[in-house]
Amino acid sequence: METLKAQKKDSTTQKTIRITGAEAIIHCLLAEGVDLIYGYPGGAIMPVYDELYKFQDRLTHILTRHEQGATHAAQGYARVTGRVGVAMATSGPGATNLVTGLADAQIDSTPMVCITGQVTRSLLGSDAFQETDIVGISTPVTKWNYQITRVEEIPEIMAKAFYIAKSGRPGPVLVDITKNAQFDELDFVYEKCTKVRSYKPVPKPEAGSLEKAAELINSAKKPFIVFGQGVILGEAEAELKAFVEKTGIPAAWTILGLSAMDTDHPLNVGMVGMHGNYGPNLLTNECDVLIAIGMRFDDRVTGNLDTYAKQAKVIHFEIDPAEVDKNVKVDVAVLGNSKETLRDILPLVDKKEHNAWKAEFDKMYQIEYDALINKDIHPTKDGLTMGEVIEQINLASDHKAVIVSDVGQHQMIACRYAKFKQSKSNITSGGLGTMGFGLPAAIGAKMGAMDREVVAIIGDGGYQMTIQELGVIFQHNVPVKIVVLNNDHLGMVRQWQELFFDRRYASTVMTNPDFVKIAEGYHIQARRVTERGDLQEAVQEMMASKNPYFLEVKVEKEDNVFPMIPSGASVSDIRLK
Amino acid sequence: MEKQWYTISAYSENHVGLLNRISGIFLKRHINIESLNVSKSEIEGVSKFTIVVFTTEDWTRKIVGQIEKQVEVIKAYYHTDDETIYQESALFKIASHLLFDERQIQNIIKESHSQIVTVNREFFALAKTGRRHEIDEMHEALEPYGILQFVRSGRIAVTKATMPISEMLQEFQEN
Lengths: 577, 175
What we know:
The complex is a heterodimer of chains A (577) and B (175). With 577 residues, chain A is α/β, with parallel strands linked by helices. Helix content of chain A is 38%, strand content 17%.
């Protein structure tokens, strides 16, 4: 360990060494503190892989079974650690297979650096074997990208890539490196990037905006907070808690804000959005001041904008100026990192309680509990529900697990019912809604948080999109717990077909393989539950295991997720059935 | 909201690929770029994009926000026609015999304040700098006689108000 540290230090010193571009890339990664990357080799990136072989004592490379898996694993790692995730691929198809993960990281603001090999400089533009314009292709789905064609560019561009990915509103960066630049030599010296002339990652709040916001908050009768992932990315969880507790304002979260605040906190009133809780959605249109913190008013959160919180004064704490007034016109924008702005507004707000207003949320919760929640998590009807599986995981994990979900009904149920005590614990594909995200993201999450339980909740559809990553779990014995909630349908699409397309179930019925046997084929302990009586014991067995574990739960085939705001409807039109 | 002409000015680093990023912002929102000009600016090493759109102020503001968000963009502004001094350039290629056969052509050249750039036996070329409508009027006048080739540049514009880019760059450097 000592020597490793000493060597690591070496790569950040100012001493010049004569090395190849490929080796320089490794030194750049080490200098950025990277010790784990996900990827897939191929012709145009082979010089770098050759160096990875030599540096394997200091830099672990995990071979995913598909490049998409590498991006989602890097995302899972980034989301759970707050560090930059790294994925690597070759040119052509290797590079294009990264696109879904890049788009996912872009819309969910996940810091990630993707490195791709490219054909040698002299072949660029000749339609060479495995040549593709990945810089052109990835432009709309990256925060920044660059093609390195000269070896001398490597240190500066790599430093810039990591800085841009992590600073301000984070996002994915792609660096494409031609093969000649990997082979050629340079006098290597690495300097970390701390600024880019044209780039201002964290804007300052406009003069007076904090005071204006505080004034609105202090005079509000029915204030309401909606927080998003900005709190987690800004590591402002303690500041949020202090703000909520001092002002006594009920606080709800977007799907990506989940786990930023203890789910059992008395002022945590639940989730907003299409399948969010009844109270927070309905009362959005009752509040007099809406305080949005680190969220971007996605359409799945707001429903119809023409009828969204029109009665309220809106305050927006936001790091990205382009998000202000993008979807919802705000009365006061407080620009900056929420960690600083929430800290700075705290002395300006009055200590208050809003008991009568909070009681309205409690009343709504009771209505929702009686109509839905109780039946979801403590069902008495035949057929297992997704909700009772999540409830069993809550009980077995004591609210301490990292929950990774895929996309669809199980995702909404997991986010509605999973309980959290710790931030950075809910990993899901929010903005892009990427089926297949769950399994590889869980691998990255587990490798980023080896001391924590990581439970992947996945539907039978999404599971089969990246099922090949079981190979990684087996090869590296990554002790993730995989729960497939199998309803033999693409459940969310089937639900929409039932509700809005007269039950025409076009291509949503799945004839599934024996998932237990597949897991066993990868030598992963596996079990199937079909009866309620076996569920608790099976979940406990899974959670007690020190190894990877696969649990398939056969759930009711045609259950629906409620509440629901139909697409394009108002938050006031939320349906309980 | 009412649509009108807006001139967007974006100061940026000279970076390969930035044009692609900026045009993508328009593409994604189905907003047509009416004219685009990229040139050097008053500051050494800093490029200036001049983009003309016909849309609402709300969309223009959002687009400018997205442009400014790009890593290499230093600052972006938008202005109405009243707030800018702007010009376009056009070239007309016309058969030379018309100069002698059609007396009206000489009048058009005179009245439009255009310049003859070159003349040879086959053709002559006219250059005209001015507002879009002036160029359009000249085009209309010449069209009946036959225009061999026509091209018009993107709008170039300077604003009546100051654009404190140098100060901004200084500030970036210091912070």
